[in-house]
Write a structure and sequence with these properties.
Helix content is about 40%, strand content about 15%. Helix 10 links the parallel strand 8 and strand 9. It starts with 11 loop residues before the first strand and ends with a helix. It is globular. The chain folds into two domains: about 230 residues, Rossmann fold, CATH 3.40.50.2000; about 160 residues, Rossmann fold, CATH 3.40.50. By secondary structure, it is α/β, with parallel strands linked by helices. It has a seven-stranded parallel sheet with strand order 3-2-1-4-5-6-7, with helices on both faces. A six-stranded parallel sheet has the order 10-9-8-11-12-13, sandwiched between helices.
């Protein structure tokens, strides 16, 4: 490709089903003056016909499919086609079949839209993994550079979760590994991509292990803006924990094997006579989930609102994130916004500074979780010190836009 002039013109098309990261990529491109088009499935502006019918839980989800920072003339949406597809295919035999079918439908729909919106100034196409192959083939036909957003560590993560299912047979789960055809399509996406964007060094290493060229991979952390009400928040801790005022451990997110829930439950059982209380918040795919708690001091809340999540962060003393694999782990940033020290694993985004803002487990095991909590019980002052050391996450939408512009400049050389 030839070098673009220094005066930038919008040259990016972002293809995105759903509202991942609250449209973080297209917003960053728009702020950088680089976004030409967002191709998406559902788009529900206030006052639209769909918005008028957006009531109840489904209505709240529909209203999320909009962002005021994205100009209407730059949005190419397919709301009625998406709703019609859902109506026709909502009863497919399994959720896996449904996901694959919808990914295929969306990729073909988006590829057609890309052809319709093509023009000489469009040089780059960004879209997320597992639904990009048709889009990237269209992009290559049109002389555009495909940029793949890799949301997870790929097949390496699948293998880790399959091993966890074997290790914890009593925790019956609906997990099914990706079919060979699923990952064949993904490898085609990676081959077609000019660059692959991941959110952590852990993901980068996992993709290299899976055979993806390290030279293609770029690490861009997640964008996060703390809620206004968290500004100035100060954590307070007792001088000693007791049964009346126990150490409050929060596990918020998906309560699944991949996230380390089994190890956390086992640690909670071992600590049942200690002044520790665990709170689990989030959906699970584990059958008879609460039956595994035994006599452990665990409270469980399967479904909560965003406002309720903030209250759980405020009430907690420490955030537990012993994941076996995560592309990044956005809940780490949410916890830090409320000055909450974190117990994390090495298999996610590098948010925690060990010894300063939290703890990094040497391994994901019930023993490691238990030992770390015992350390807090012996020295509650460490929680206060680490909380005071936390600073807000600073990877903003503007910085992401600058990084994407840098990818553009490198691609034009």
């Amino acid at each position: 490709m030839t070098m673009r002039p220094s005066a930038y013109a919008p040259s990016w098309c972002c293809v995105q089903a759903g509202h991942r990261e609250r449209y973080g990529i297209p917003r960053a491109l728009e702020r950088a003056g680089a976004l030409d088009t967002l191709v998406t499935d559902l788009w529900v502006p206030p006052g639209s016909l769909l918005a008028q019918f957006a009531v109840g839980p489904l209505g709240r989800r529909l209203r999320d499919r909009f962002h005021r920072e994205l100009p209407p003339h730059k949005v190419c949406a397919h709301p009625w086609q998406a709703l019609a597809w859902e109506a026709r295919n909502g009863l497919l035999a399994s959720s896996g079949d449904r996901v694959l079918a919808r990914n295929l439908w969306w990729a073909e729909t988006a590829a057609e839209a890309l052809h319709q919106r093509a023009k000489p100034s469009l040089r780059f196409v960004f879209t997320y993994c597992y639904e990009a192959r048709s889009v990237f083939r269209a992009a290559r036909e049109l002389g555009m550079a495909p940029i793949l957003g890799q949301i997870d560590p790929g097949p390496v993560e699948d293998r880790k979760v399959a091993e966890l299912v074997r290790r914890w047979p009593d925790y019956r789960t609906s997990f099914q590994p990706g079919e060979p055809s699923y990952y064949k399509s993904w490898r085609d996406e990676c081959d077609l991509a000019a660059q692959v964007v991941v959110n952590s060094q852990w993901s980068r290493g996992a993709l290299v292990e899976a055979g993806i060229s390290d030279e293609k991979i770029v690490v861009l952390p997640l964008v996060y803006t703390p809620p206004p009400e968290a500004t100035g928040w100060i954590k307070t801790y007792p001088a000693v924990f007791s049964l009346e005022r126990p150490l409050r451990v929060l596990f918020l997110g998906q309560c699944i094997l991949r996230k380390g829930i089994a190890e956390t439950i086992e640690a909670a059982q071992a600590l049942r006579d200690r002044p520790v209380e665990f709170t689990f918040v989030g959906n699970t795919d584990i059958a008879a989930f609460e039956s595994h708690f035994g006599g452990a001091r665990i409270r469980y809340f399967p479904r909560v609102s965003r406002a309720e999540c903030h209250e759980f962060y405020r009430q907690a003393d420490v955030f537990m994130f012993p994941t076996h694999s995560d592309g990044f782990g956005l809940t780490q940033l949410e916890a830090q916004a409320w000055r909450l020290p974190i117990v994390a694993s090495p298999f996610c985004g590098d948010v925690v500074e060990a010894g300063r803002t939290g703890w990094v487990l040497p391994e994901v095991s019930s023993g490691a979780v238990e030992a770390t909590i015992e350390e807090m019980l012996r020295n509650p002052g460490e929680l206060s010190r680490r909380s005071e050391t936390i600073r807000p996450w600073d990877f903003s939408v503007e910085r992401l836009g600058e990084c994407l512009r840098k990818l553009e400049e490198e691609g034009n050389r």
